[in-house]
Amino acid sequence: MKIAVFGASGRTGILTVYQALDKGYQVNAFARKAQNVTIHHPKIRVVQGDIIEYDKVKQAVEGTDAVIVTLGQDGNKPMRILSGGTANIVKAMKETGVKRLIVMSSAGILGNDTHPVFGKIIVPLVLNNVFKDKKRQMEIIRESGLEWIIIRPPRLTDAPKTGKYQLTEGRPGTRSVPRADVADFMLKLLTNKNYDGTMPAIASY
Question: Which residues span the domain enclosing 192?
Fold first, then answer.
């Protein structure tokens, strides 16, 4: 299997790339700075570019079987990196015939699907612009017509992979989850179609 990973130099993206390579997959790793993808492997191809550069995005998507998106957003400035970048990815997938899209977002995008302190205080006061863009991203994905899944983790940690996690329809079962477990679940979704068209929350036990 050949996949594209967007946000490949991020803390969740890089783990997704490592785990994909460990499974024997070929990976197109998309990153703004190629040198930040610190993996040397015969089955990785690093595509350097800005997510708003459509030609670069298409270059990463073309010839793959599926796309995984782990894009992040720095700060809380008004921006459309997540939604604009995802719109480019969706367009490229449609033009190249790639149908499967797995996207990491976060708990809170549905409004009532996170811990009340985070949802009612942190999001409005600290992350309002980030979540506005996450919601725009969500709508682009839901209207894409692709085989999509949106993952909603709570606080991400750098703890080791456990391979055991809770999946719920509403609020996550606990307040955190290892990035490595999120990567593990996203890679399982490449072949598991039970969650197609849904937005499961993932959390540690």
Answer: 2-203
Residue with tokens 């969706």: 90
Q: What is the CATH number of the domain that holds 129?
A: 3.40.50.720
- Say how far apart CA 184 and CA 46 lie, in whole Å: 21
Summarize pLDDT for 72-91 with one digit per residue, the tens: 876 666 578 899 999 999 99
CA 174/CA 165 separation, integer angstroms: 10
Looking at the structure of the chain, the number of domains it has is 1
Q: Whole-number mean pLDDT of the chain?
A: 91
